[in-house]
Amino acid sequence: MSAEPLSEPVGASKLPSAPTSLALVGAGVRGTQLLLRLSRELPAEGGTLDLHVIDPFPFGAGRTWRTDQSDALLMNGPTESVSAFRLGEGPDLVTWLDSQAPDRTSRRGEFPSRNVYGRYLAWAFEQALAALPARVRVHRHRAWVRSVLPTADGGYRLVLDPASQGARQDGTTAVSAAVVILALGWLEAQSHHGVSEGLPERAAWIAPGHPAEQDLSTIADGAPVLVRGLGMGFFDALSLLTIGRGGSFQPHPDGGGRLDYVASGREPVVHVGSRRGVPFRAKAGRPVGTASDRDVVLPRNGPHPALEATLRAGTGPLTAADGLLEAVLADARDAVAAAGGDPSAVTFEALEAPLAGRTWETWQQVHEATLAELEHDVAETRRAATSPLKAAHRSIGESRRIIAPVLQERGIDASAWPAYQRILRLGAMLAGGPPLERAEQLLALVRAGVVRFLGPDTVMTVAADARAADTQTEQPDGAAPALQARSPHVDSADGPQASVLLDAWMHAPSLATTVDPLLRSLLDTGLARVHRVAPNLDGESDLEAGGPPSGAIDVEVSSGAMVGADGRAQPRLLALGIPTEGARAFTILSPFPGVDERAIDECARAAVHVAGLLDGEG
């Protein structure tokens, strides 16, 4: 049902009389949390409130955690590390799962399929709606929002485009709302194929994107494929190309956690490289379905005295003089020493790019060097809490959580911004990688000849000779490969060839580069602007021009109100979550109950703000 247009003029901070209306665009993790907080803030008494919840994907689960995705796609955090609720307010994922099957072993420590978390979020979404006051009239729209336009009465008109997800449509093409909250998640971005001479006509390119939505059918059974990216997108794609095509893994007879791959004959030959050249590091955990007597001792996070002292030392925006990198490195070395390792061996360079500066004569040699790195990481992950290397990984990963609230309160200037970004990237690689189970599977696929490593700084070029160098690189249909891998670190020019290039990664969220029609419309109308980091506070910068763009939607952090092109906050147009990364700090992760509930805090502040507006207090 389409909402009636608001008819009464309103001032900058007062909403029209009943019926009031609110539109929530995005009903995934942040949208569900916003509804849960609104259920606590909205008074039971009052006029009717029309709440429009709009998402092209399943409500609660959203796009990332959609419930129809393959079981082969796993979470990269254990069941006890995520929740829709604050500690004590409702069940976290593991508690909810255990309550569904009280007779089986607890799923604590497991890294389950992403659709499992999606089912939990769908349940939490329904709980949130049920908890809203009876005066709230909920309208669900399975649709994209293509634009948000201001109306003469001070509200907004949202133009909808029905989703093509097989959901029932209600025929609504537009809704009007006095308050709009955007909880959009990852943003669509413009992609470039990055092949040096341009993509040949006979070559296929699978662009970066959500792994569950990438069309991998272009990759023929048994054919070679060139892949860029060794992060979580790669592990997802690899699972779909192996388990998803009928392959399976079984324990090796020698035990010790080693796996063997049982091929289906449909898997391709995967040649993969990345800027760093090594996979994201594995995390300790318990494989799904294993008995409790195989539980590992999961590590705990250690202290960060150097970083905490650095953050306590000032009150203004963080600058290069604060030495964030030095403090994070000092704590990582302390963690290594406490675990019995050599702290002098810990450097950012060695952790970020262990293959940097090396050269090889052949592709086989770079493959073996990368494999040795993977084997070492797996061995250290098996040691879990006793590994000095993993102590460093955890320390650097956890430093992001420690920096984030201070940065959000005090800000950061352009001189410290590169260091902060480096910490985020390195923390993601070291502590945001796959569960050990996935790394063990990757080793099995290497041993089975399914995966070959290309090393660091690999580039994809048009094959100089369209004919395959040998029968192993010919396509099943006889067509000559169109693309070839090359590396400045490998002397041999005979790099692997293929006719399909898979980009197994996702763009960082950026308002500046997004192709999302909704956000482009907000930029075009001046309702949104790109956030900029504070300029260097050394007296040498142009304070009026501001610092470098962070890529985030600019918001007023205390409420989520979006800042328009004129520099003024718009109290009835809010943005939450990942697209505000930069204006806010470390927004990527779901809430970790009792450890990191800042995502819930963000939604709670927005709910208080919205409830005040609806009561005429804005």
Offer a few descriptive terms.
single chain; 5-stranded parallel beta sheet; 13 helices; disordered N terminus; alpha/beta
What global shape is seen?
A: globular
Largest sheet: 7 strands, mixed
What is the radius of gyration computed over CA atoms, rounded to a whole number of angstroms?
25 Å
Structure annotation, total helices: 13
Low-confidence stretches: 1-19, 291-298, 466-476
Strand order of the largest sheet: 3-2-1-7-22-21-20
Strand fraction equals: 15-25%
Q: What is the helix content?
A: 25-40%
Question: What is the structural class?
Answer: alpha/beta
Count of DSSP strands: 22
Quaternary state of the chains: single chain
Please report the distance between the alpha carbons of the first and last residues: 28 Å
